[in-house]
Specification:
The complex is a heterodimer of chains A (about 425) and B (about 190). Chain A has about 425 residues and is an all-alpha fold. In chain B, a hairpin with a 5-residue loop joins strand 4 and strand 5. Classes of the chains: A mainly alpha (about 425), B alpha+beta (about 190). At the A-B interface, helix 3, helix 4 and helix 5 of A face helix 1 and strand 8 of B.
Chain lengths: ~425, ~190
């Protein structure tokens, strides 16, 4: 790690490079090689990041201000003038966007802020026209049109803010009020449209992952895409497979976790691995809940009745395939966690209102918890260790409190679990200390 | 390759401008050439932060007798349907027929209803029309509602919405109180204050 003296020296060196180039002591190529060798100065990285953040904030605030001004009607203006002004936001945003593409295509701050500005002004323009002509319209149609017009922005230039805007609009569109109100007669085609809208931005995500897996764009996209998908499932799951909701969520958790295990960086901060966190936590929560849900409705009965059921089945097999590939490439893998897709399908097939499926889940949950604890100790990761302990504790306590035991017995169990927690964390601390010596 | 990329950018720009343009053209065409209907209305005033303040309209015609006019009504259905309009003896619009089949006649417009909006005695159903918002400047919308209430005392209800319909598309032209546009009345009242 560079100390302050080194940074000052580097700063001085970089300031001398243009002078040396001008005096023809070194060539421009040599100058670039020197810069590449020592890397960017931390201050310049911070300044770039600040520029991006302020650029995006500035664009969002200007766009928000314009929208608020638009919300204040201009009743006294003739309709023709209001129509012309309706186009003003989007035309202005397009001109600025064009300027960016032409003159500043490599400036992240410019690309991000103008992309977001244009994305927001598209919505503002449609709203202005609706307001001028008292067009109530359908909110879902409005959002659908908006997101289709934003879609090209995510491919024309690398723009995390445009991707974020697009995903947000897709999730908003999926919150279909009609579908929420009439679960009995949910539109069976909403899920197809939703999958298509999601599939369209996946290539952009893949490109981003290849370009800069640990970059802020990829991380932001990962968080929005994974959490957004889980939220959207509440309304897009079609009626014929509403009973398969648990299966669908389980398969999503499995595929998120598997994708990160195969493509992700094991040594990265967990919060920079959204698929790992969302998938991993999701699996633990699913196992815990499935352990005591014996009711018929928690399990899927729609096998063979509708093509929509193929989605969770394919996702489960896809995650199994990724786990096998991960194991073959000798990448780090929690073996017991990798069995989750199999256990998921098995439990859904046998879920018949009796105890079979919940017993299977309870046993698996216990093994998974132990597996996490051991894996966490081995890799010295407190989050994995404690997640395992919490799962074991939750399973024991939940099963325990479902029976009628006395206070003393329950108190003893509490103490034992607490001691277990402390002991395992002590072991983890010891191992970490040994490793750093 | 670069030229193709600029072509794509150009197409994107055209698409982004064409949507508002299409809305305007469709609206103007309907307002100029659509058949005029008068709907009896009662204004209410909620707040919509995103699209400016508006007066929420509701119509007498929105209460549709189930037995006489609804065809193929399915229990549990909520969503879009189409209403064929007629005119009563006083010249006000009412719903003649409610159907799930889109009709291409001038009088048919898309409406919305929910199963839960059927009256308890199962004789009527409340539907919503696509022209139930009248946008006004923020400060004026509450005044507009006040104007209507003042005007409706003593049993006098003469607020009407003028709606033009063409090819199953309906456009709200204006809201009149006793034959005068509500905007003018509100403006006059606010200036007098």
């Amino acid at each position: 790690m560079q100390d302050k003296a080194d940074l000052r020296s580097l700063d001085w060196l970089y300031s001398q490079l243009p002078i040396l180039e001008k005096a023809q002591v070194i060539t421009p190529e040599t100058s670039e090689k020197i810069r590449a060798h020592y890397g960017e100065l931390p201050q310049s990285k911070i300044i770039s990041i600040l520029q991006i953040i302020f650029g995006i904030l500035g664009a969002a605030l200007v766009a928000g201000g314009i929208i608020l001004i638009i919300a204040h009607n201009w009743d006294d203006l003739p309709r023709v003038v209001r129509v012309i002004l309706s186009f003003a936001p989007v035309i202005l945003a397009q001109l600025i966007y064009f300027f960016t593409l032409w003159k500043k295509p490599d400036s992240i701050a410019w690309v991000e802020s103008t992309s977001l500005f244009l994305a927001l002004m598209i919505g503002a323009s449609i709203s202005l026209v609706s307001q001028t002509y008292h067009i109530e319209g359908n909110f879902q149609s409005f959002v659908f049109t908006w997101l289709l017009l934003v879609l090209p922005l995510i491919y024309i230039r690398r723009s995390g803010s445009a991707v974020a805007c697009y995903i947000f609009l897709v999730i908003l569109w999926s919150m279909n009020f009609d579908n929420i109100m009439s679960e009995y007669k949910r539109d069976s085609w909403v899920w197809v449209k939703f999958v298509a809208l999601y599939a369209v931005f996946i290539p952009r995500w893949v490109l981003e992952w290849k370009e800069e897996a640990m970059g802020w764009r990829n991380i932001l996209t990962g968080w929005l895409a994974s959490v957004g998908l889980l939220i959207a499932c509440i309304t897009v799951i079609p009626h014929p497979v509403v009973s398969c909701t648990s299966f669908i969520y389980g398969s999503l958790f499995a595929v998120f976790y598997a994708l990160d295990k195969y493509f992700g960086r094991e040594d990265a901060n967990p919060f920079k691995r959204p698929l790992y966190l969302v998938g991993g936590l999701g699996i633990l929560i699913y196992v815990f809940i499935a352990g005591y849900r014996q009711d018929y409705d928690f399990y899927c009965h729609e096998f063979g009745k509708t093509p929509a059921i193929l989605v969770p089945i394919l996702l489960s097999f896809a995650s199994l395939y990724l786990f096998v590939r991960t194991w073959r490439r000798k990448l780090p893998l929690n073996f017991i966690a990798s069995l989750f897709p199999l256990i998921l399908i098995l439990s859904q097939l046998v879920g018949d209102g009796k105890n079979t499926a919940s017993i299977v889940m309870n046993v698996y949950g216990l093994l998974l918890g132990i597996g996490c604890v051991m894996n966490g100790l081995e890799t010295r990761r407190w989050i994995v260790t404690n997640a395992g302990i919490m799962l074991i504790s939750a399973l024991v306590l939940a099963r325990f409190f479902s029976d009628q035991f006395g206070f003393i017995v329950r108190g003893v169990v509490f103490i034992l679990l607490g001691i277990g927690f402390l002991f395992v964390n002590y072991l983890l601390w010891r191992r970490t200390q040994e490793a750093t010596k | 390759m670069k030229r193709l990329w600029w072509w794509i950018v150009g197409l994107m720009v055209i698409a982004q401008l064409s949507i508002p343009a299409y809305l305007i053209i469709r609206q103007e065409d309907t307002l100029k050439h659509g058949r005029l209907y008068k709907f009896k209305t009662a204004p209410v005033d909620p707040y919509d932060a995103f699209r400016g303040k508006y007066v929420q309209l509701s119509f007498d015609a929105g209460r549709v007798p189930l037995g006489s006019v609804v065809r193929d009504y399915e229990a549990g259905y909520s969503g879009r349907a189409y209403a064929t309009l007629g005119e009563d003896a006083e010249g006000y619009a009412f719903v003649k027929k409610l159907s799930y089949e889109p009709a291409k006649l001038d009088q048919a417009i898309p409406v919305h209803f929910y199963e839960s909006w059927v009256s308890k005695d199962k004789t009527n159903i409340v539907i919503t029309f696509p022209f139930e918002r009248y946008y006004m400047e923020e400060g004026k919308a509450p005044e507009a509602e006040k104007v209507y209430r003042e005007h409706s005392r003593g049993g006098k209800r003469d607020a009407v919405a003028l709606v033009r319909v063409k090819n199953s598309y309906a456009a709200l032209e204006d809201v009149l109180i006793d034959g005068e546009p509500i905007r003018k009345i509100v403006k006059r009242k606010l200036q007098a204050k």
